[in-house]
Amino acid sequence: MPISLEVNGERVDAQVLPRQNLADFLREHLQLTGTHVGCEHGVCGACTVRVNGDIVRSCLMLAVQTHNASVETIEGLSDSGEIVDLQAAFRDRNALQCGFCTPGMLMAAQDLLQLEPEPDRDRIREHLSGNYCRCTGYQAIIDAIETTARSRMGRNA
Amino acid sequence: MSAASVKPEALSVLDRPNSYIGKTVPRPNLERLMQGRGLYVSDMELPRMAHVVFLRSPHAHAKIINIDADAAKRSKGVVAVVTGNELAAVITPWVGVLSHLKGLKSAPQSAVAIDRVCWQGEAVAAIVATSRAVAEDAAEIVAVEYEELEAVTDMRTALDPATPVIHPPLGDNLAFERNFDAGAVDQAFAESDEVIEADFIFGRHTGVTLEPRAVVADWNTAEARLTIYQGTQAPHMVQNLAALHLGLEEAQVRVVCKDVGGSFGIKVHIYADEMATYALAKLLRRPIKFVADRVESFNTDIHARDHRCKGKIGVKRDGTITAFEIDDLTGIGPYSMYPRTSAIEANQVVNLIGGPYVSKNYRARARVVFQNKNVMCQYRAVGHPIACSVTEGLVDLAAMKIGMDPVEIRRRNLIPDNGYPCAAPSGLRFELLSHHASLNKLIAMMDYDALRAEQAALRQKNIHRGIGIASFIEVTNPSAAFYGVGGAKISSQDGVAVRMDATGAIICQTSITEQGQGSESLTAQIVGSVLGVSMQRVRVFLGDTDNTPYGGGTWASRGAGIGGEAALQAAKILRKNILEVAAVILQSSPAELDIANNSIVNASDGASRIPLNELARIVYFRPDTLPPGIQPELMATRHFVPRDYPFAFTNGVQASWLEVDTDTGFIKLLKHWVVEDCGTIINPQLVDEQIRGGVVQGLGAALFEKCIYDERGQLTNANMADYLVPMSGEMPDIDVGHVVSPTSETELGAKGAGEAGTAGAAAAVANAVNDALRPFGATITEIPLTPQVVLTALGRI
User: Fold this and answer.
1) B536 and B598, same domain (yes or no)
2) Which of B34, B207, B695 sits opposite A102 (nearest CB)?
3) ipTM of this complex
4) A residues 94-113 lying closer than 8 A (beta carbon) to B
5) Structural domain that includes position B140
6) Residue B259 above 80 pLDDT?
7) Cβ separation of A137 and B42 shorter than 8 Å?
8) Is residue A135 part of a domain?
């Protein structure tokens, strides 16, 4: 099926099979491999991307459903500089080890910070409860997001 | 000490100005991972690459009567359907035994099953197609006729005469047995005031790396060379085994390891489907990619910890522990895993029980039996969580029996900090540990007395909180004693090559590997510190058998201690060589010079003499200006392997503070503390994060994680929704403290830290739960501590 959409601000026209999910479309058609596939059934959160401003599990959405939509991936958020402070906080706090969950974590974290500028630690933990991390134990991730929230509010961490 | 006052050769890396040792600096490789620009094997594509999907047995034990793949072979996009017999023409079977584990036996295992399947999930055919989706479609129309055989699933009856023998040529289902007896155990129990026994049960669980196992194998028939891209912890081990079983020379195999999406010991083995993928590339003369899906991961990634351990402890009224005794039983699936074997975990349990304590009276039996379940093998902190949970569980039961505080009984029995060197009850030697200093620090960090007061006050309000303490020891920096002595070609040494390029930048090649621990960072920190070069000018290459020195890789908490020491020694040689050239150029002597901030400086006053980039320019482009006979050597390589001690033991202690809801059985973790001693700390943040991550994996085992098999050997929760792992909302904040007892076996002094967290977390939680349940007279010695287990113990269900 033909689809036409915007990915990271660029127009994309493609022919896709009806059964192809968005994660595979991004990874295999567009070589945007920053979107990771961990479970293929919507549990682990590694494939989290933004569609029309909302975060979704790209393994649970079909590529054809993104016809006329705007899709943003970790590569897009990185290049636009939208999350440069969040990434810096992750780096400074070593909030990633193997890094496989990280694109999805950053997507979920940025989503929270857009919805709620000053979430407390419990709220951060709750919002990330759909994103698996097997390396860090989560604490460093929570710290990095909390730091980013505070600095965005104009205060020092 | 100031650098200016002493000869550079006399300086330790620890006290140089601008040293990165002991400093928190960001890992150099984080940016690409955060921007989605990493390169995991699952991201890779090669020209003409085909994808393999394995058709896997739905039965735990069955004969393969017939495989009809005709329709699948005719499907559009299918390249080949290959059975076990067909693949056997390219790759030989293997047997997972090591000679130092006396009596260990196993049966030959093939890359794809031949004639019989021995666990649910064993591959029976490989379907190769132009895409994974096409291969999956074709797999659905391969018809396999099975004749089901009786499945051996319960380890407790695996050795009964009435139970079928899984591999008849082996005679029975006993893979390995070890008996150990030291001191005077019977006499010690007889002289004890109390003897307490308990049965400890550990759920079978698995690693759940977020990136599944993945491999791309590329056979170039013109070069007669196989390139294997694999997320592995041990590239040279993979090279050796792929060559061995494909009938190639090692030089014909290159293993490349880029970014790895989690390992935790899961990716330190060689799996049958990986072997099959190498063989398919050779058979089909094109690149073949295998990426396990999540169901396959649960059914084929090694499982671990499925142990039932009877424990016994003797204690006197004054708190003196008189003896430990255990009888451990574990079921490992139908084969001993290759090449590290599936007897190591039980062997470690025997080695580690009672390890922190003075008592030398110790008896152990460990039996390892075959079953028709997925294979079990080494996963993070091999054997440690079992040994620690049994030991610390028994110590707490003893304390409870004699009415002594859990901290006090440990103070009275832990090996004194001035008692080293000494040996564990099992005979393993300790160079220098710090149990008492660690316990004292932990007690201060958690404010133990205040917490006890809070606990007592809350009990009045029917809120049941508990405190659990667990001391532990950890095996790190393994020498050849681990695998080499048993005949496995798994290197215990590591090598680092360091060179200065023509711009004065430093390039390092190391045989240790990176899966997120910070191997790249710690190597750059050490090399930068020794050389006086900023980390930004140090590039580290790892994970490529063609382009790194030969070595073991990263596992068993060995990267920093062994690979780090090799980096230090190589950098020292390069530093010496640089200073010799500098002395010639500056008409000075090496002793009068130092390197700092990317420049040759005066040792006396630190004044800059010549930048390294200028020195490099002269060496590489104007050697004609150097005096005759001077041949600068701006590259150095050193290897290191521990020789004095088979293992550099570390130690530590953990504490858990939690609340048990006695109506629902739910456990809420409130806080967790760890004090550990890994010797010299290269990067405090990386060590702390290793500890935290390790703790959370241990907490997963304590509360959630379990591979649930039914009596027919069917894994019933092989997906992420049903197999629970720790999520951010359930995990507590974890405070980490350190005591530093460097190993004197190396100049660096670093020991490992990768497994300390996992070693003691479950024991601390189980002890805390029992502490919380004390008013109810309930004791639980089983993990995971699910609500069902808690409510059963409380007699509520």
Assistant:
1) yes
2) B34
3) 0.97
4) 94, 96-103, 106
5) 41-149+212-260+266-300
6) yes
7) no
8) yes
